[in-house]
Amino acid sequence: MTAAYAALVSLTHTLDQILHPPPTLHIIFDTDQIVSLRQKADFFVDFLENTSSTSGDKRIEDLQKRIGGAAYAAEYIIEFNVRNQILAESAVDREEISNLLFEGVHTSIQEFLFIEKELVEFKKDHVQHKNSTSTEASSLSSRPLLPIGKNTMVGFDDHMVEIMGALSTDEFHLRNISIVGMGGIGKTTLATHVYNNALIMEYFPIRAWFTVSQEYTEKEILHGLLHQIDNTNRNDAHDMNDEDELGDKLYKTLFGRKYLIVMDDMWDIKAWDMVKRFLPNNNNGSRILVTTRLLKLAADLGSCCPYQLSFLDEAQSWDLLRQKIFAEGRCPIELEGTGKSIAKKCRGLPLALVVIGGLLAKSKAEHWKYVEEDVTSAVYNQDEEFCMKILSLSYNRLPIYLKPCFLYFAVFPEDYTIEVLKLVNLWVAEGFIRQCGHKSLEEIGREYLEDLIDRNLILVNWRSITGEVRTCRIHDLLSDLSRREAQKENFILSGKLFNHLDILSDTEIRPTRLSINGGRWKGTKLMPYRSLVPTRSFLSFSKGDLTDYNAHQFPLLRVLNVVDRYPKHDVLQLINSRYVSCMGPMMLMSFSTLSRLWGLQTIGVKGKLILPIEIWQMPQLRHIEGNHINMPDPPSPDDVQKIILLENLQTLSIIRDFKCCEKLIKRIPNVKTLRNVCQTIGSNNCLRNIGLLHKLEELYLECPPCGGEIVFPCSLKNLSLSGCKIPWEDMSVVGSLPNLESLQLWKNAAVGQKWIPKEGEFARLKYLLIHKCELEIWEAENTHFPCLEILHLGYLNLKEIPSDFAEILPIRRIDLDNNSTNDLLVSSANEISEQRENIGYDSFQVQYITCGALIIWVKSCTNLVVCGGGHIGVIITSGNEKVETRVATKDVNPEWDEELTIFNPNESHPVSLCMTTTTWTRRWEKQSLILDHW
What is the CB neighbour count within 10 angstroms for residue 916? Predict the structure, then answer.
């Protein structure tokens, strides 16, 4: 069903694409026919979105497979024939291909009509069957009312104390308290220990536990609660069939009594809505304790401050694992190292630790090493049914529109830190996001991600000061779940390549999406097509030689994401590509026929990117990213009516010498992120035109001195400036921005000796960085920066931080970067910290950062060795001290490229970097490098 839904939504985007092609491409198609197919696709999308889980119903599952197959086939027909039209050499050829397109679309419409007819018949039969069975008496659930068996609890003592405290507060009103966390993290175990605690048992004379889970009825819940609360009249309750009668009995039984009710494993608000009217508010401190995986549900229940369970740390993980393996909790010394390594690889998830503990308790000592090599597989092999039952609930309960997005995490390697902007752009390019209202597809995609986070399926790795999730990750067990489910639906195939073996060798059908996340893939050969559905996405996270996968093997590729250079001529053959990301440089000159890539949305190059003038004829572009982008001025049209606006363009980063003239700015009206480095400003100071970008939210601007002659749009949230030399007295041009939350003033961004902010400015600013700017006197009050949370100062001659900053309520940190020699500044930061404590505000953190940084590019066949021990790393000598720094890479392979950052904590000493070149005879090359500072 997930694959079918993703195929349908992607088809709607492809149909919209052909209805609105780039104006320079003349694609021949029947508009009415395409519109008709679009309507059919929307019908089936709506059907799948409104269809509840039908697991086990073979008839509907067959229909869903046919819907997905029809969507894949329709999209293939369209993209294949459009590609051939674009590549056709004559008008006659294009006409013949258009006829094939017409016939193919007609066939697709007929197939959808036939499926729709069967679907109508199914719905009719389903309603009749439902009516015939609705009068049957429902049997009581066979689910256990309380968890069975003794559960070891480690690391949750503080949570238990807090929850018991919340249950026994002096507040008399009936309260809901929620425990929230991902599946397997220990919610039920914690709730069980609280429920069975002697103090809680004494405090609440009446207690009841009901496991709600996914399938329930109002009658089941009421019966379950009554059976535990009123043992004397159990038979009377069993004979009652009317929900209101059961509810009335429950209400009367609880009325005037102090009770605790646990509703375990709740998935939606309906269960609470069914029973809350039968739970009296006796104003005696009665409580409802709920466990759920859904943060939003906890909020909907009215829970005050839900208790979110975090993962166990390494010490707690080892403690729990040790207790599960050894009855007395003592581990032999020779196994302790391996045991701690296994515990660490469980990533703090109690479910994994418990299952692995059960396996190791029955294993010989020599088997531990095999478990250590692949903990995730060991967990599933030990008790696959148990693990999948717990974890797959979260996936099965997802709304259909979130399922493709979750399965897409299968493309990323384990332990991979995922950039959210990249992830959302990939979702958009894959066609997963359905247009809704006036929001952009990227905005909807971020909402989808936040939903997955609230459901405890995805973990936040870094959230910016403005609240946006910048990087995320997924737990290993959930990553494995996504791969299993994705492969089951032929949605994604991901794996590693070793010894030039093709991971496709055992597959009967080419997967829609292929991800290579490890091993060497030079020389790997693809099997021939065995399916009508071609591979649409190729992602590789493995560095190595240039790939042998090329445009001829992927004629209909839409997503290309590789960490190697990719031949320019191959990129330009990917006519249907929507997303291209690779290493640079990439020179796409005017003859490059770039505009033939009729669906290209995102192009990202880690290197120099030279764009042709035809870039202004590609209105479908959404994101252009590179380390150094050269973008030509737009051509002057003969007719004003023929001006093409890049209305979809949202990201332009990092562009060099971008001329911000008015005619150019008006061509990109919806840009949200702009990073611009310009050497000259121009006679008319066109930086004022940046104010015309009314959708701009993030701006990085490095330019020559412009004084105060610059205008920023009111929409800005993040602003970073360098070299502008704006006088401090003119800083109102920035301070007056109503939505500004983050401001970074880098080298020479501002000039002058004194800064006196004006009242009412910087009203929403949360983060302020001032680095290598002229500033000696700063006179400000707490009202000038009312929302400031973090202040970062670096390389300043500032004499003191305004003392009133101690009274800024939200501020939580001051970072002093390389200011250790400025005693006055350090002293004032400490004084502010002391003042803050004296007036009773939250604790205040002052951080001192002193380091230099060197970034080098390590070429292929270069091995950095620590002390000749064979580990990848470097030898750093600072003065007489030797420090080991490991390179962040998983492959212990001498042939790799890696950007290496070395931090020098002592600016007074040079650094020696020792490298070895990988040859048959190892040679030492030594370079003395003095690290500069940021």
Answer: 15
Burial class (CB in 10 A: 0-12, 13-18, 19+), 533: buried
- CA distances 886 to 732, 771, 873, 881, Å, are 45, 29, 4, 16
What is the chain's Cα-based Rg?
31
> What residue type is 711 in one-letter code?
V
Distance of alpha carbon 677 from alpha carbon 628, whole angstroms: 9
CB 202 within 8 A of CB 166: no
Q: Is 471 helix (H, G, I), strand (E, B) or coil?
A: strand
Residue 348 falls in which region: left (phi positive, over 0), alpha (psi -120 to 50) or beta: left
User: In whole angstroms, what is the distance from residue 70 CA to residue 40 CA?
Assistant: 11
Q: How many beta carbons lie within 10 A of that of residue 372, not counting itself?
A: 17
The single residue listed with the structure tokens 């968890």 is 147
Quick one: pLDDT band at residue 522, thresholds 50, 70, 90?
A: very low
- CA torsion angle 195 196 200 204 (round to 10): 70
Is the CB of residue 624 less than 8 Å from the CB of residue 649?
Answer: yes
- Answer for the pair 794, 817: CB distance below 8 angstroms, yes or no: yes
> Which pLDDT score, from 0 to 100, does residue 57 have?
73
- How far apart CA 9 and CA 45 sit, in angstroms, is 7
According to DSSP, the residues that pair with 471 across neighbouring strands are 419, 462
Secondary structure letter of residue 473 according to DSSP: E
* Contacts with 339 (C-beta within 8 Å, 6 or more apart), sequence order: 318, 321, 322, 325, 331, 360, 368
| Cis peptide preceding 855, ω within 30 of 0 | no
Q: pLDDT tens for residues 753-780?
A: 999 999 999 999 999 999 999 999 999 9
pLDDT at 794 over 70: yes
Mean pLDDT over 196-217 rounds to: 88
Residue 68 CB coordination number (10 Å): 24
Residue range 242-262: average pLDDT?
91
Q: State how far the Cα of 295 lies from the Cα of 267, in Å rounded to an integer.
A: 10
What single string gives the DSSP state of each residue in 555-593? TT--EEEEEEE--HHHHTT-TT-SEEEEES-EE--GGG-
d(CA 88, CA 82): 10
Per-residue CA distances from 722 to 310, 675, 704, 710, 729 (Å): 40, 11, 9, 13, 17
Q: What are phi and psi of 4, to 5 degrees?
A: -65, -45
Residue ranges with strand state E in 824-891: 845-849, 852-858, 862-863, 873-878, 881-886
Q: If you write DSSP's letter for every residue of 702-748 in order, what string do you get?
A: E-S--TT-----TT-SEEEEES--EEGGGTHHHHT-TT--EEEE-TT
Neighbours of 629 (CB within 10 A): 23
For the record, the structure tokens of 757 come out as: 């902010």
pLDDT at 886: 40
Taking CB atoms within 8 Å and a gap of at least 24, the contacts of 38-43 are 38/12, 40/109, 40/112, 40/113, 40/116, 41/8, 41/11, 41/12, 41/15, 41/71, 41/74, 41/112, 42/12, 43/116
Question: Who has greater pLDDT, 64 or 420?
Answer: 420
pLDDT (average), residues 355-365: 84
Neighbours of 589 (CB within 10 A): 12
Please check the confidence at residue 670 and state whether its pLDDT lies above 90.
yes
pTM above 0.85, yes or no: no
Pairing of strands 602-610, 586-587: parallel
Closest by alpha carbon to 249, among 273, 231, 222? 222
